[in-house]
Amino acid sequence: MAPGAHTVLDVAADQEGHGGGSTFTVVLALLVNLGIAAMKAVAGAITGSAALLAEAAHSVADTFTEVLLLTALRRSARPADVRHPFGYGKERYFWSLMAAVSIFASGAVFAFLQGIEALTGERTEQLRPTVGYVVLALAFAMEIVSWRRAIRQVRTEAAAEGRRPREYLRYSDDPTVRTVLLEDSAALIGLLLAFAGVGLHHLTGSAVWDGLASIAIAVLLAVVAYSLGRTNKRLLIGQQADPNLVRAVYRWLREQPEVTAVVDLLTMVTGTDHVLLCARVDFDDALGVAELERTCVRLASDLTEEFAELDEIFLEPVPRTDQELRARVLARYGDVFRRGHE
Fold first, then answer.
1. Are residues 248 and 179 in the same domain?
2. How many of the other CB atoms lie within 10 Å of CB of 119?
3. How many CB atoms are located within 10 Å of the residue 317 CB?
4. What is the spatial distance between Cα 307 and Cα 31, in angstroms, rounded to a whole number?
5. What residue stretches are annotated with the Cation efflux protein transmembrane domain (predicted)?
6. CATH number, domain with residue 116
7. Would residue 128 be called left, alpha or beta, if left means φ above 0 and alpha means ψ between -120 and 50 degrees?
8. pLDDT at 294
9. Looking at the chain, which terminus has fewer C-beta neighbours within 10 angstroms, N or C?
10. Whether residue 150 has pLDDT greater than 80
């Protein structure tokens, strides 16, 4: 993903506002990516390098990804309505999943076919390899700027949450940052593979190296697509909120004077920084009906102030002695729930 990759991060940081400036920046990034794809494609045609053509497909896939990420950012910001009472936050995961599919379909498959053709087709001479070296060097210089920007973004956001970068990427409910970082990393590795393919073809005169580099690029893109697809699948299905948030909410509820026990705690990510909470709580038996109602309203309000991610909160009074409910909780979590919150 060429130099415009960091612009998606800028837009992601301003999720609620998609004004003309941000839109123009992302559109400009798309045009730049298209330009680099065209540059690689022309260089591939001139040199006859399958690896360069595979990298051109890589840049095309990144361009589609930019479009899909922009779509995700815009559509997921729409407010809740009658048909979607919990909002459109999960649209971000759907379009990010489509981005993973585009990486595989337009990048990995094309690169693989180019590699197979280079290995099994008629022998082709490599022409003007210097053109390939220059294009790859220019692309690498631009990619490293974007990659460093992505790394800096991840470190900043991880530090804000008191996490290590790897842990932050694992638990983040925003697929945008992860997508950009993986794409930039894959882009740098792909350029090194293409350089190796072009160089070894130049030195040995054998197109086998070029074909192998193209297949290696295809495998790289397939791995990235699978990783992104798996992450977004979990979020689309309905993943639990960040474990740190779940534990904090549990402790907070248990510390309230009206609460005797937290019987069950269900969370689901409904969008980036949006979490649905359903807590089944055993309240003090001394509370009357009116007091219980006021307590539920107060707790919900205080939870929203304490934990900004909580978007929808449901509190259900239940007796902790309910054996059927206890059995369901244990069947879902085993001893993890009890041990994780003691």
1. no
2. 15
3. 15
4. 40
5. 26-236
6. 1.20.1510.10
7. left
8. 93
9. C
10. no
Extract the tokens encoding 217.
Answer: 């690029």
pLDDT tens-digit readout, 165-199: 888 888 888 777 777 788 778 888 988 998 898 88
Q: Report the chain's mean pLDDT, rounded to a whole number.
A: 80
CATH number of residue 289's parent domain: 3.30.70.1350
State whether 217 and 82 are in the same domain.
yes
* C-alpha distances out from residue 82 to 86, 89, 267, Å: 9, 15, 22
* AA identity, residue 123: R
3 state DSSP class of 207 = coil
Instruction: Spell out the residues 6+ positions from residue 160 whose beta carbon is closer than 8 angstroms to its own.
Output: none
How many domains does one find in the chain? 2
* Domain termination site, one of 221, 237, 253: 237
Around Cβ 322, how many Cβ atoms within 10 Å?
15
Collapse the DSSP code of 315 into the 3-class scheme (helix H, G, I; strand E, B; otherwise coil) and give the result: strand
Amino acid at 337: F
pLDDT of residue 2 exceeding 60, the answer is no
Sequence-distant (6+) residues with CB within 8 A of 71 are 95
What is the pLDDT averaged over residues 290-301?
92
pLDDT band at residue 259 under the 50/70/90 scheme? very high
Both 84 and 123 in a single domain?
yes
Q: What's the CA gap between 313 and 306, in Å, rounded?
A: 13
Q: Who contacts 44 (Cβ-Cβ below 8 Å, separation ≥6)?
A: 50, 51, 52, 53, 55, 56, 132
Beta carbons within 10 angstroms of residue 120's beta carbon: 8
Query: Domain range holding 306?
Result: 243-340
In angstroms, rounded to a whole number, what is the distance separating the alpha carbons of residues 279 and 247? 12
Do 249 and 223 fall within a single domain? Answer: no
Q: In 3D, which of 141, 140, 133, 134 has the Cα closest to residue 201? A: 133
Longest dimension (CA), the chain: 88
**Shared-domain flag, residues 24 and 94:** yes
- Is 233 in the same domain as 248? no
Integer Cα distance of 48 and 214 in angstroms? 12
* 212 and 74 in a common domain: yes
Mark which of 212, 237, 262 sits at the end of a domain. 237
